[in-house]
Design goal:
Number of strands: 8
Number of helices: 10
Largest sheet: 8 strands, mixed
Helix content: 25-40%
Distance between the termini: 24 Å
Radius of gyration: 18 Å
Shape: globular
């Protein structure tokens, strides 16, 4: 995967470092970290592929874990390094999610693939990134693969906010006019999928799914309400979200999902 110019331009100007800091943005981070914590052992060795500016990598390194990170976009790497504390056992290299040949087989206890699948636009590329993540993970290790989910984004950015025109997306072939399934190209930046697409991708791999999680649920759709909540009610919302984020009748309505599986 080469970094297309659209991707470079986007992350050069987008505040990726601050995306997860608001109340509504923190739901995705807190949910993902909650599940990561379920599978960490005191000596866990972690690889984050597509680490961005390092929100997860730094959080884990600050808990004392050894973290190696790979990121494609140079701008993100610069911020990652600026945010690195002297006491963190952490490294970052520029690299490609579809070619981790610099990393040995069966090495990591936890492998995070929390960004690259947002920006891969065909089945072959997605499966190659997943194949590499699985390859470098120890037998019995756990992989976390994140996706952008079309229905949550369409409801929030399209029908609610009007940041995208649903009519134009249909006219331009980005939405199926009958099923509303999404299609994307590199210039569109984000690949939007549904769970059935993820199930199809994973059908070729000999893995065991542990969890399929609506990482932020309705948080982006409700962002104004969440951001105005006092801490008590926000914590109450989080308890509700954690209790329901794996319910099959709710996992389709989310902007981000995490597929968690054991090698």
């Amino acid at each position: 995967m080469e970094a297309n110019q659209h991707l470079i331009d986007f992350y050069t100007h987008y505040d990726e470092d601050g995306r997860l800091l608001s109340k509504h943005g923190s739901v995705e981070f807190l949910t993902t970290m909650r599940y990561i914590q379920m599978y960490l052992e005191p000596d866990s060795h972690i690889l984050e592929i597509g680490a961005g500016t390092g929100r997860y990598s730094h959080a884990l390194a600050q808990q004392g874990y050894a973290v190696e990170a790979v990121e494609l976009v140079e701008h993100n790497i610069e911020i990652f390094r600026q945010n690195t504390r002297p006491d963190e056992h952490i490294t970052i290299t520029q690299g490609n999610a579809m070619d981790l040949s610099a990393f040995q087989d069966d090495k990591y206890d936890i492998t995070l693939l929390l960004g690259p699948l947002y920006h891969l636009y065909n089945t072959e590329d997605k499966q190659q990134a997943l194949r590499e993540a699985i390859r470098v993970t120890k037998p019995g290790g756990v992989v976390f693969a994140a996706y952008v989910i079309s229905d949550g984004c369409l409801l929030d950015e399209g029908f609610k906010r009007g940041n995208i025109s649903v009519t134009e997306y249909i006219e331009n072939g980005l939405l199926d006019p009958v099923t509303f399934a999404a299609r994307s190209k590199p210039k569109d930046l984000f690949e939007l999928v549904r769970k059935e697409d993820i199930d199809y991708l994973m059908s070729t791999f000999d893995i065991t799914r542990l969890h399929y999680v609506a990482a932020d649920g309705c948080a982006l759709f409700m962002r104004e309400v969440l951001d105005m909540m006092d801490n008590y009610n926000f914590e109450l919302f989080l308890k509700y979200h954690f209790a329901t984020c794996e319910r099959e009748d709710l996992t389709g309505i989310t902007s981000h999902a995490v597929d968690i599986f054991r090698k």
